[in-house]
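Exercise: predict the fold of this chain.
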Amino acid sequence: MSGHNKWSTIKRKKGALDAKRSKIFSKIIKDITIAVKESGSDPEHNPRLRLAIANAKGASMPKETIQRSINKGAEKDAAGLTEATYEGKGPHGIAIYVEATTDNLQRTVSNIRAYFSKHGGELGKNGSLNYLFDRKGVFVVPKGNLNQEEFEMEVIDAGAEDITLEDDLFTIITAMEDFGNMMKKLEQLSIEPESASLQRIPKNTEILEVEPAKKVLRLIELIEEDDDVQAVYHNLTLTDELMEKLD
């Protein structure tokens, strides 16, 4: 529990760094496209699409853009999109896990390998670092007028393993198996999360001195900027000292 709490705090702080990224819409559009490609364009019968649309709304994506993304997913071009994962070690042995959606696997793996090799890391074999991360459901819910105690009791009943409140946002962690239950519970409560996703949470995190840590973060940010990359996870602890140096 405490490990998850520490991770969620880290993620909220990291969110301040990610807010400047213009790629958010691009990533969500790919999520919608893949969801439609897999299971059709009706969100009522496609849980993954329903989730992607909810995330799009949480990111204030215009309805027209959401609909265009759904239409795009039904086109032949969408068939060329493939999901892929990459695992490697960054500087000082920090584990880095990359999720991508691409129409050219050779281009993507070539780019990812180059990022690692040019910045003191090394791309490994798939599965080499998977054991270092747990697959968890992560929900971010605005507090609004919610009664904290009552809300926490409701989500614990739906499988919440950890709940934190920071900056008027609840971060809820669930087991992967309880992801659907939590989505249903929030729907029953008429609560629309700011975001909901399956993420990879490190089982343990590593602490580095500020300068080595900044080197790792430069690599992570470079990978995140790649157009094919959807998400990057790592086991570096973002200490208060480090965050102050980045501000």
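Check your answer against the key: The chain has three domains: 2-80, 82-131+204-246, 133-202.
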